[in-house]
Amino acid sequence: MADIASSVDSHVGKRIRLLRGLRKYSQERLAKALGITFQQIQKYERGTNRIGAGRLYEIAKILGVPVGFFFDELDGFTTAANVGVHEEQTPFHKGRTAEKVEASMAEKEIAGIELLMMPETLELARVYYSIKEERNRQQILNFIREMAVRP
């Protein structure tokens, strides 16, 4: 259970880092808005310190997203703990061990969050949204999609 919980902490931390980068917030700026040190932000982003519900709500409010954003793309979170029910909770992914779930989560994070955090991706997003004409943005998006499927 502790391993799965720490992977959730890591996932949430990566989502904070991603969003902070997209919003052009430094660790210092976010920390100041929260009334904590930038070192605490670093610990949150690495997943070494857990973020309480109230603090996560504050972060979501400052960065302008719903709290659920931090849990997007998080799956495979299962528990065998008894939470007031007389039987174990049913895993979301039947037949998968915790190790397989952890590996699957890690692969998705590399493919998803890490890809979004690459400098080229951030620059592309900034430049794309600096184009005022929505029709032009749509044409560029269609062009990129076409290029992606070409052999």
Write down the overall mean pLDDT: 77
Number of strands: 0
Rg on CA atoms, Å? 19 Å
How would a textbook summarize the main sheet? none
Shape: elongated
* Annotation field: number of helices: 7
By helix and strand content, what is the structural category? mainly alpha
Strand content: under 5%
CATH topology of the largest domain: the name is 434 Repressor (Amino-terminal Domain)
Topology order in helix (H) and strand (E) letters: HHHHHHH
What's the number of structural domains?
2
> Helical proportion?
55-70%
**Low-confidence parts, pLDDT < 50 over ≥5 residues?**
77-99
Distance between the termini: 44 Å
CATH class of the largest domain: Mainly Alpha
Keywords: DNA-binding
InterPro entries: Cro/C1-type_HTH, Lambda_DNA-bd_dom_sf, TransReg_Diox_bact_type
Domain HTH cro/C1-type: 16-70
Protein name: Helix-turn-helix domain-containing protein
Description of the structure:
The chain is mostly helical and about 150 residues long. The protein folds into 2 domains: about 1-115, lambda repressor-like DNA-binding domains (434 Repressor (Amino-terminal Domain), Orthogonal Bundle), CATH 1.10.260; about 120-150, no CATH class. Helix content is about 65%, strand content about 0%. It contains 7 helices and no strands. It has helices spanning about 1-20, 25-35, 40-45, 55-65, 100-115, 120-130, 135-150. The radius of gyration is 19 Å and the shape is elongated. The N and C termini lie far apart (about 45 Å). InterPro entries: Cro/C1-type_HTH, Lambda_DNA-bd_dom_sf, TransReg_Diox_bact_type. Pfam families: HTH_3. Keywords: DNA-binding. This is Helix-turn-helix domain-containing protein.
